[in-house]
Amino acid sequence: MPANSKIEQLRKDYSAHTLEIEEVGPDPGEQFQVWFDEALNAEVPEPNAMTLSTATTNGVPSARIVLLKGVTNGHFLFYTNYNSRKGQELRDNPRAALTFLWHELQRQVRIEGRVEMLSEE
What we know:
By secondary structure, the protein is α+β, with helices and mostly antiparallel strands. The chain is built from two helices and six strands; from the N terminus they run αββββαββ. The longest helix is centred in the first third of the chain and has 14 residues, at 28-41. The radius of gyration is 17 Å and the shape is globular. The model has no long low-confidence stretch (mean pLDDT 90).
């Protein structure tokens, strides 16, 4: 049997952790910080690695892994080359989605919103 024919059988049990609404705080930024701190304390490799998803003005999606550089007042900071494909897509269509995946904690976090350029400082 070809190796890739077993892909559909790959499945890990993700029932060790559940998400109960009463365990989640009312402020999404504060909740993210709680979970990010848990990822740090669990020594998750590269807990700041996130998938950045963008799209062209025609709706053609693109995703790549970038690193979170900080969180300030609920804003997620990352760096990019403004002349790169992602930089051009963000300029033309300033909306993006971020996804963090922390396998060890059986948790993922999705963030969607408007993107703004930071000053060079």
